[in-house]
Amino acid sequence: MNNYSPAFHRHKSLKQEKNIMLPFSCYSPKLSLYILATCVILLMLLQIRSLHTVLPTPSSPLPSLSPSASWSLFQQWQNLVLNRTLAAASPVNCTQNPDSMNQKLRDSITFLPLKDLRFSNQPLDGHTWFMSSMYDTREEGEVQYQQFPSEPSKDRLLCLKGRDTHDGSWNYYALAWPEALPTNATLMKGLTFVSYNHYNYDNIWHGLSAVMPFVAWHRKNSCEKPTRWVLYHWGELRFKMGTWLNLLMEATFGQAPHIEEFNDVDDDQPVCFEKAVVMRHNEGGMSRERRMEVYDLMRCKARVYCNVSLDRRDSHERPDIGMTLLMRSGARSFRNETAVIGVFEKECKKVKGCRLMVAYSNNLTFCQQVKQMSLTDILISPHGAQLTNMFLMDRNSSVMEFYPKGWLKLAGVGQYVYHWIASWSGMRHRGEWRDPNGESCPYSDEDHRCMSFYKNGLIGYNETHFAEWARNVLNDVQTKRFEEEGTKNGTASMKTCDCN
Ligand SMILES: *[C@@H]1O[C@H](CO)[C@@H](O)[C@H](O)[C@H]1NC(C)=O
Ligand SMILES: *[C@@H]1O[C@H](CO)[C@@H](O)[C@H](O)[C@H]1NC(C)=O
Ligand SMILES: *[C@@H]1O[C@H](CO)[C@@H](O)[C@H](O)[C@H]1NC(C)=O
Ligand SMILES: *[C@@H]1O[C@H](CO)[C@@H](O)[C@H](O)[C@H]1NC(C)=O
Ligand SMILES: *[C@@H]1O[C@H](CO)[C@@H](O)[C@H](O)[C@H]1NC(C)=O
Ligand SMILES: *[C@@H]1O[C@H](CO)[C@@H](O)[C@H](O)[C@H]1NC(C)=O
Ligand SMILES: *[C@@H]1O[C@H](CO)[C@@H](O)[C@H](O)[C@H]1NC(C)=O
Ligand SMILES: *[C@@H]1O[C@H](CO)[C@@H](O)[C@H](O)[C@H]1NC(C)=O
Ligand SMILES: *[C@@H]1O[C@H](CO)[C@@H](O)[C@H](O)[C@H]1NC(C)=O
Q: pTM of whole model > 0.85?
């Protein structure tokens, strides 16, 4: 999604790093003298050799030697000189005084603020404002991540410092070699997931967007499970995920997420992680195929966790065509639920095997939602976080979305998130209905101040339109079902999840 290329900057920072490293490296005046001498000799030899190749005439002053013979002689000499130099250099023992060198490495560690205010005007671009000096590992179509230790980190571990929950520029990060961790640092064993979330971990859409890349990493790295999570929002620590998200992660990783609170650590005491993975770009960079595989894994794990059958053919409760009206209460609910239920019920009854179910997202447990979605082929719901549940339906299921008045012009690109997740998780977004009527706003229709009037408006209905729309979607689902039965094989049966 972002095309920022860190190649140039990385090159530069590598060079800088080398220069900084020089005073600590294995350095001796004796060695440099040898190297200097070798260079001078090699230079002279090269001159002689180039004379030979330029003048390979019979009248050459060295007629007894053919150019190739002289070249091999030269090589032998060169090897000898090099061997001597290296042999002479080897007595310089780099590990002779490891303690003082490690102390120097330790003292050279610099902690930088997690939130870099220089980038507050583009907090999500490229290296972002979170750990802004670090670059992500990027592979075509795969999730973007940082891993420590790793080749890009030159085998250094990630260390964090600070427990601020209000301002991320008071929390810090640094890299350190395992043998030279910062003074007084605590080393935490196992795999640590470090998450950046620009919004929050309570809203199920924003929460899922932040944790989804970790599931992608897990799937790609032999299903390795995290020992702990460190959650950040703008560099500020967070100690909780919403219940729904917490349970989804428990289902996916087979254990409730342990969210690190650093209770046993002083505010200015660094913590280093044996192995850490950092995510700050959500699903950005992933191909549609990869995203679908990750949602497949979470769906599968959630169904296993909730004892819901993985395959529709194994379920006795499952209708041929399940149509679910997922209701909201309060903001963005239907103004006349009875009327809306009536329209869809009427259309559903006309189709053999169709069953209409009405559910309220606010009073369903996580597993009730997982189960409800496993019975659903057509999800009908107002715009809102409860729609995130759509990825829990079988692939290729249908979604119908409803907006109150005013959203099209004023709500910005964020209003399309459920179109996106439909595409990413392999669902079919069957369009939307926007209520032409609703709250009235004292300003002109396009004034951004009107959004506060429209944001949580109620949603009316248009019987003619809803009925026609429902007929079309039902017809498509039915046609697809017939086709599947015709080929006998149907949808590929799902018996086990990718990670076990
Ligand atoms: C240089 O050292 C290598 C390995 O120790 C050896 O194989 C090679 O023959 C040596 N070259 C000469 C010219 O002594
Ligand atoms: C270098 O020094 C260390 C510690 O004094 C010693 O254990 C090691 O054997 C030495 N290595 C060489 C190549 O002399
Ligand atoms: C390390 O901890 C000791 C004891 O708590 C303290 O006196 C010292 O100042 C600390 N050193 C650093 C660099 O924080
Ligand atoms: C799933 O079934 C197992 C065994 O039948 C039971 O122990 C577990 O509590 C069930 N889980 C849920 C979420 O219902
Ligand atoms: C809701 O719609 C039904 C059916 O169209 C109608 O009978 C009822 O009066 C409506 N209720 C309200 C509160 O408008
Ligand atoms: C769920 O909530 C809806 C409205 O908020 C209410 O009508 C319904 O009775 C509730 N169901 C349960 C099982 O609590
Ligand atoms: C209801 O929808 C139909 C079909 O899309 C449309 O022709 C009609 O104008 C709509 N009615 C209202 C009141 O918006
Ligand atoms: C059914 O599946 C098998 C194996 O996956 C395949 O070889 C066969 O062609 C399929 N049959 C139909 C009618 O799609
Ligand atoms: C979903 O639909 C596409 C295109 O119709 C089809 O290729 C694919 O096999 C379907 N996937 C599943 C899991 O039904």
A: no
Tens of pLDDT along 204-216?
A: 999 999 999 999 9
Is the minimum distance from the CB of 358 to ligand 6 under 6 angstroms?
no
Residue range 4-63, pLDDT digits in tens: 444 434 443 333 333 333 344 445 556 556 666 665 666 665 555 554 444 444 444 444
User: pLDDT tens, 87-100?
Assistant: 555 555 555 677 88
**Residue whose CA is closest, atom 12 of ligand 6?**
363
From 248, 305, 307, 309, give the residue whose CB has the most ligand 4 atoms within 8 Å, as the site to mutate.
307
Q: Which domains does the chain have, with CATH numbers?
A: 103-286 (no CATH), 290-490 (3.40.50.360)
Rounded Cα–Cα distance for residues 134 and 294 (Å): 26
Residue with CA closest to ligand 1 atom 8: 79
DSSP per residue over 422-468, as a string?
A: HHHTT-EEEEEEE-S-----SS-TT-GGGHHHHTT--B---HHHHHH
Cβ neighbours of residue 86 under 8 Å, at least 6 residues apart?
Answer: none
Ligand 9 pocket member 396 (CB < 6 A): yes
Residue 144: which H helix or E strand, with range? none
Q: Cα Rg for the chain, rounded, in angstroms?
A: 32
